[in-house]
Design goal:
The protein is of the alpha+beta class and 139 residues long. Helices cover 23% and strands 6% of the residues. The chain has 5 helices and 2 strands; from the N terminus they run ααββααα. The protein has helices at residues 14-25, 31-34, 52-59, 80-83, 94-97, and strands at residues 35-39, 45-48. A two-stranded antiparallel ribbon has the order 1-2. Strand 1 (35-39) and strand 2 (45-48) form a beta hairpin. Helix 1 crosses helix 3. It is elongated, with a radius of gyration of 24 Å.
Length: 139
């Protein structure tokens, strides 16, 4: 498993190869139940639900580059300006700011999200003529 893509042919799909590998290491469940995702576009690999012992078996197989557990990351904020501690009247420096890249993780939108609360938010601008569909509107 690694960076070089394996061409799919008429007999074996990449997912079927991943399932075959899983069948060799699984002690309990079926490979289909364990497989979470089969990756085939950017790299050849898969995500699966495995025990510690199954991970060790997989790690020792020929052709396996790496095995690592997934991590759950928690969002720190949806209001970066406040999170970074900038005052609302900070002096802007366009030449410096132009080289900054800010990453964004799209976690979806749900009405119960703290980022959709009205706390600390003034009324919407009078020129705003939008509507809310399928969610509870805030300001």
């Amino acid at each position: 498993m690694g960076a070089l893509p394996r061409a799919e042919d008429e007999y074996f799909s990449i997912e079927s190869v991943h399932l075959c590998i899983l069948e060799q290491v699984l002690d309990r469940s079926s490979a289909r139940e364990s497989l979470v995702c089969s990756y085939k576009n950017s790299f050849d690999g898969f995500a699966a639900k495995l025990t510690e012992q199954e991970q060790r078996k997989l790690r020792g197989m020929e052709g396996v580059v790496s095995v690592f557990p997934s991590r759950t990351l928690k969002l720190h904020t949806t209001r970066s300006w406040d999170f970074l501690g900038f005052p609302s009247t900070v002096r802007r420096m366009p030449t410096i700011e132009s080289d900054i890249i800010i990453g964004m993780i799209d976690t979806g939108i749900w009405p119960e999200s703290e980022s959709l609360s009205n706390m600390g938010i003034g009324p919407p601008p009078s020129k705003w003529k939008g509507i809310c569909q399928n969610i509870t509107c805030n300001k």
